């Protein structure tokens, strides 16, 4: 029996989807434990790019069971389109994809609430993806939510109507100019609910604990990144769920003492989407080059990602909070061609030099302290072994390992599953 965790250590978009795809052959079950359809996990193989929103990234492997856990929030409409996009691959969705009855549903009015709330904030927007995820988690904690298991109940439509009417009054309260046709949205929603009922629902915590007892190996897949965690992220510019290791326990019903390895994924530089502080952000040509070479645009939202140098202060914090045991470094190939690289190893915080993440990292309080490393010019994308990599790149890797005191076991040098080097 093995339960391992796969976690993003930055502000999301680290490349978790690719690594899950690479690792899946080693596991019997891939289980998504939190987040919603704003999290796009990108996989690339056989010349085809795939973007998954809710479905675990192991779905393309015939032997693996994929579970959507209780900590996930699902939009039936988005989910139905995701399923339709997979039809051409002849996957056995009915038996290979299982959905927790305790996962919460995103209603059309959740999306409208999200839009109304964000519009009302004006310049104080938090950068919501407007997918209805925040309002759905609010209903979950407020004990108002509707769950997947409710679809099987005779009074599901009454439950829906009661909550949707409540949302309608809340939308009206915001008093913003929001144009929508709720009848059309609801027709689409109930059609998607009908399709969802054709899939397999499970009591996921019972299923997973039996699987562990039977000696099955499980990989718990997170969404977003640790710096977007509702408790430990850069609040309030965070997501609405627990993106750290603890979220795997609450989002799947797995006890902490069952977890063996925590794989932490990070980019060789740093990116962020939407609003919020970002100490190492670059506003010059270097940042623009990173964005262009790294194709830094959201897989789901299409939003441009802000780019900056690697921040080891924030990364060390994420490693500690998650209890990371192995590191996976992504997109090292994007840094090829820079003569000099900078790495943030400390902050100047209110005139004091510190090496930990403080309560507030807004630019008026924090200035990054950098060390410089020599860059490399070689194209890494065709390299297949650690020995082939240029000396400067290996020095960069070893410097990060020494600072974080955790080994980097896997290095990605391109988007395809084959462009992955085990160290």
How would you describe this protein?
The protein is an alpha/beta fold. Helices cover 31% and strands 22% of the residues. It has helices spanning 16-23, 76-86, 93-96, 108-120, 133-141, 156-174, 182-196, 204-213, 245-252, 285-293, 312-322, 391-404; strands at 2-8, 29-32, 41-45, 48-52, 65-68, 73-74, 97-100, 104-105, 200-202, 217-221, 259-267, 270-272, 306-308, 310-311, 326-330, 340-349, 352-354, 366-374, 408-412, 420-422. The strands form five sheets. Strands 9-7-5-2-10-1-11-15-19-20 form a ten-stranded mixed β-sheet, sandwiched between helices. Strands 14, 16, 17 and 18 form a four-stranded mixed β-sheet that branches. Strands 3-4 form a two-stranded antiparallel ribbon.
Main sheet specs = 10 strands, mixed
What distance lies between the first and last C-alpha atoms, to the nearest angstrom?
25 Å
Shape annotation: globular
Average predicted local confidence, pLDDT: 92
* Content of β-strand: 15-25%
Number of strands: 20
Q: What is the multimeric organization of the chains shown?
A: single chain
In DSSP terms, counting alpha (H) and pi (I) runs of 4 or more, how many helices? 12
């Amino acid at each position: 029996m093995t339960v391992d965790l796969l976690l993003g250590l930055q502000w999301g978009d680290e490349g978790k989807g690719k690594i899950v795809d690479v690792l899946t052959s080693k596991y019997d079950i891939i289980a998504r434990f939190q987040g919603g359809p704003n999290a796009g996990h990108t996989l690339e193989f056989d010349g085809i790019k795939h973007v998954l929103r809710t479905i675990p990234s192991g779905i393309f492997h015939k032997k693996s069971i994929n579970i959507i856990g209780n900590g996930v929030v699902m939009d039936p409409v988005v989910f139905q389109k995701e399923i339709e996009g997979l039809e051409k691959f002849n996957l056995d969705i009915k038996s290979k994809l299982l959905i927790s009855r305790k996962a919460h549903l995103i209603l059309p009015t959740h999306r409208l609430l999200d839009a109304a709330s964000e519009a009302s904030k004006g310049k104080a927007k938090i950068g919501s993806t407007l997918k209805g995820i925040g309002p759905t988690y609010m209903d979950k904690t407020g004990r108002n939510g509707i769950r997947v298991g409710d679809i099987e109940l005779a009074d599901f439509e009454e439950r829906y109507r009661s909550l949707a009417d409540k949302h309608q009054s809340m939308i009206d309260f915001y008093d913003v100019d929001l144009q929508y046709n709720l009848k059309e949205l609801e027709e689409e929603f109930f059609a998607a609910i009908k399709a969802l009922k054709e899939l397999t629902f499970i009591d996921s915590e019972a299923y997973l604990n039996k699987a562990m007892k039977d000696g099955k190996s499980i990989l718990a897949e997170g969404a977003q990144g640790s710096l977007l965690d509702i408790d430990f992220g850069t609040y309030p510019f965070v997501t609405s769920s627990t993106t750290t290791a603890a979220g795997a326990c609450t989002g799947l019903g797995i006890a902490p003492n069952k977890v063996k390895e925590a794989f932490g994924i990070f980019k060789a530089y740093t990116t962020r989407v939407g609003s919020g502080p970002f100490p190492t952000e670059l506003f010059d040509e270097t940042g623009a080059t990173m964005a262009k070479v790294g194709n830094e645009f959201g897989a789901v939202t299409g939003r441009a990602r802000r780019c900056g140098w690697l921040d080891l202060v924030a990364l060390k914090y994420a490693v500690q909070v998650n209890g990371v045991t192995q590191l996976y470094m992504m997109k090292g190939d994007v840094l090829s061609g820079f003569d000099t690289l900078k790495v943030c190893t400390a902050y100047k915080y209110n005139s004091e030099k510190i090496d930990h993440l403080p309560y507030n990292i807004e630019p008026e309080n924090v200035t990054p302290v950098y060390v410089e490393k020599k860059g490399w010019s070689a194209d890494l994308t065709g390299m297949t072994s650690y020995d082939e990599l240029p000396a400067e790149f290996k020095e960069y890797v070893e410097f990060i390992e020494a600072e974080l005191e955790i080994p980097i076991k896997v290095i990605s040098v391109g988007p395809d599953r084959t462009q992955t080097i085990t160290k």
